[in-house]
Structure formats: structure tokens, C-alpha cells
Design goal:
With about 180 residues, this protein is an alpha/beta fold. The protein contains five helices and eight strands; from the N terminus they run H-H-E-H-E-E-E-H-E-E-E-E-H. The radius of gyration is 16 Å and the shape is globular. The structure holds inosinic acid (IMP) and magnesium ion. Magnesium ion binds next to loops.
């Protein structure tokens, strides 16, 4: 796959550094608080594993499986959620971990769903953000990197459910991918 995607968009070293910073900030902000970190599958699975390991607090973890009906160049219209949380989040602090916040619709929908359980607070952390594509206003408290509108794969992010296992983030280039088939 490395031959298809070329060099990383963000190096693994830059990623490690930034995720460590996020972990430090989160550890500081939630010191002494009861925190549940909720990963949004599938996209956030790699980032989530790296992030929780640099949060130095006795957190609990949980997952949601969600998917926006999204095409490569169109924002999610509806969001489908397959799973329920297994942990109780009422009166607890929740950190929702996303791979990428694009239009913001998926994150907004998930926050509104989780709010029904009356958590003490809920904040969003995302590895990547495309602020230029935002269609609704949503507070994203922790952002790894802001990126342009290019479509990105790897490190958990997919194109048609593929390339999640590419170990780094790369810009999607449809041309060479066609040739691979
Ligand atoms: P939103 O609802 O438009 O914010 O879209 C969020 C979801 O769309 C993310 O959780 C991703 O699954 C997907 N997505 C948006 N942009 C990209 C991208 O550049 N690469 C891969 N997936 C993306
Ligand atoms: Mg996706």
C-alpha cells in the first residue's frame, strides 16, 4: 500500500508528539474527575488506542459503532448507530473520540444522543478536523490536526472500508488506486 499512497501527510513522529500533547492536556483538564472515553468505531480505533495510552488518569473506555451515509465528496446526511454504550455515563464526564470532524453532522448527532443519558459533561476530541467543511456549529475541544479538504485515508480512516490499516495518514489519490484493482 505504501507504493500507492506515497509519503505520509503527517509523519508518525509528528503524530506521536501531538497525541502525547493531547493526552497531557486531557489528563490535566480531567484531573480528579470521573471520565469515560468513548471511541467512535470504526474510524477512531487506531487513534483511540494511541490516545488512551497517554492519558494518565484511571479512565473507563467504551465504544460506539456509527456511520454517516457519506460519499467521498458529500457530507453525511443521516447517521446510523449500531451499538449502545456498555458503561453508564449519567453524571459522569464523557470524552467522545472521533477520527475526523468534517461537516460536523456525525459528531453533533452522537453528542445529542449521548446527552440523553445526562452526563456531567461531554466534549469532543478528534484526530483531524476540516473546519472549512463545517455545516453546523459544534465545539471540538481537542483537535490533533486541522487539514484542508483533501480526502484522507490510513491510521483508521477508510475509503470504501479499505486502507484503515495503512499505518500512517495519506492523501487519497483515486488514480493509482484504480490501477491497483
Ligand atoms: P461528518 O459527519 O461530515 O463530520 O463526517 C464525519 C465522518 O465522515 C468521519 O467520522 C469519517 O468517517 C468520514 N470522513 C470525513 N472526511 C473523511 C476523510 O477525509 N477520510 C476518511 N473519512 C472521512
Ligand atoms: Mg468513515
Amino acid at each position: 500500500m505504501a507504493e500507492i499512497f506515497g509519503k505520509p501527510l503527517i509523519t508518525q513522529e509528528a503524530m506521536r508528539r501531538r497525541i502525547r500533547e493531547l493526552g497531557k492536556q486531557i489528563s490535566k483538564d480531567y484531573q480528579g474527575k470521573d471520565l469515560v472515553v468513548v471511541g467512535v468505531l470504526k474510524g477512531a480505533y487506531v487513534f483511540f488506542a494511541d490516545l488512551v495510552r497517554v492519558i494518565q488518569l484511571p479512565i473507563q473506555i467504551d465504544f460506539l459503532i456509527a456511520k454517516g451515509t457519506k460519499k467521498i465528496d458529500r457530507p453525511a446526511r443521516t447517521v446510523k448507530v449500531w451499538t449502545e454504550l456498555t458503561e453508564k455515563i449519567a453524571r459522569r464526564h464523557v470524552l467522545l473520540v472521533e477520527d475526523i470532524v468534517d461537516s460536523g453532522l456525525t459528531a453533533q448527532f452522537l453528542v445529542s444522543q449521548l446527552n440523553k443519558h445526562k452526563p456531567a459533561s461531554i466534549a469532543v476530541c478528534t484526530l483531524l478536523s476540516k473546519p472549512a467543511n463545517r455545516q453546523i456549529e459544534i465545539e471540538v475541544r481537542y483537535v490533533g490536526f486541522e487539514v484542508s479538504q483533501a480526502y484522507i485515508v490510513g491510521y483508521g480512516l477508510d475509503f470504501e472500508q479499505k486502507y484503515r490499516n495503512l499505518p500512517y495518514l495519506a492523501k487519497m489519490d483515486p488514480e493509482p488506486v484504480q490501477k491497483e484493482r
